[in-house]
Every structure is written in C-alpha cells, then in structure tokens.
C-alpha cells in the first residue's frame, strides 16, 4: 500500500479507534449505580419525589475533591405535621457510597445540616429523608470532582495525632434571635478520617482506614443530632446545623472512631468558647 493510500485511510482508522475507546467510557457514563444502592442501603423501599421535602446543595464543580461542601435542608412547610426522622447522604460513585446517616432529635427541629465530604468521581449525590410517616423521599444533585477519597491528608501524621479528638463548638448570631429559640451552631473534631485509599508519601503503602464513625450531639440530655459516618466524610469532621433550643444550659458532644477511641466534651450554651 502506498503512503497516499495510508494517509487516505487515516480518518477511517481514527474513527474506528475512537469508537473502540469511546465505547467503554460511554458505557461507564451510562451505568447508573443508584438502583443497586436503593436495594443495598434501603432494602428496595419505595422512593418518593423529595422536591418539597429535602434539599441538597453542592457545588457543580468542586474546587477541592477532598473537602466538598454539602448542605441538607428541610423543605417541609411549617404547617406539615410530619417531621424528618433521618437523612441519608449517598455519593453514588464513591468506593463506599453511603457517606453518612443523620438521625434528628424528635424535639430539636433540625432544619439544616452542612458538612464536607470527599468525592471520588463525577457523580450523582442523593439525599434520602425518612419522615415520621415512615416514607422515604429523595432529592439529588450532580457534582464534578475526582480523586477525593485518595487525596493525601492535609496534615502530617504528628500534627494529626496531636489534634486527635480535639473538639470545638461555635454558635452563630441570627437575625431572628433572641425573639426565637432557633440556634445555629457548629461542631469541629480534630481527626485524620483516613479513607483507607490514601497512600503514605514516604513508604508508598496504603494508610489503613481510621475515621469517626459515630457522633452524638445533645442539649443537656435531649438528642439534637447524631451521625453515623463513613470514609467519605472529610478530614477534621465539621458539622454546622440549625436547631431549636429547649432552654438547656449545656451542649454536649460524644464521638467514637473505628479504633475504639471515645471523645467527649461539653460547653456552656451562653459561653461556647473552644
């Protein structure tokens, strides 16, 4: 075959190669893990449209895949007699898709929760609210991010060890206070929250998974919010939330991690400090 003949065939060869290489990528994009996750996480329970029940906000394109902000917000109308019992956050294409499950205290009226998560691939992210009527309601958003679960830790080992379990509690001024008892607060926990997919830059070995898997927040002894966490929660777990005060003087936090450590702290509600 002449050189001219080869050149003439190049567009056809390129087209065929493009089809060959594009097919798996398109197949991957077309694959939807959500139906399988509904079966695995929620035992195939029916999912209702959550547009008027639960909102989920995340950046469409994340600046840092290891610390992607997410906000979950109740959209129930004030006259709705139902309440949200729990919210499950699912990052569909993460290695461990169930990022966190939040249980809401029956009398705390938690209306908003914000945290930071790792996102490993371009993915749908679902928020599933279980209401007091026993039904599940789902909303979703889409996030462009990759590599968040394997991204190196932001702190070195010694620094992370020195900050292990340190907690801070903050309150934020609200325009409606003190007319109402609505409060906005934040809990921050010093913890590496290793995903098990990160590599030690010196030894080139994978760092074992080590993360906060339980967190309970109470006002005095009344539950406000609890979290069952997984590897998708970012380093130094951080929860910001809106709730209704019951007049308690003390706010308490208890966290546990996968190595069995238990961390506790409490603060004067009027003087939260650090």
TrEMBL record:
Signal peptide region: 1-27
Positions of the Sulphur oxidation protein SoxZ domain: 177-267
Pfam families: SoxY, SoxZ
Record's keyword terms, sorted: Signal
Tagged with keyword Signal: yes
Domain Ig-like SoxY, chain residue ranges per copy: 39-149
Identification of the protein by name: Quinoprotein dehydrogenase-associated SoxYZ-like carrier
Organism: Bradyrhizobium niftali
Species classification: Bacteria, Pseudomonadati, Pseudomonadota, Alphaproteobacteria, Hyphomicrobiales
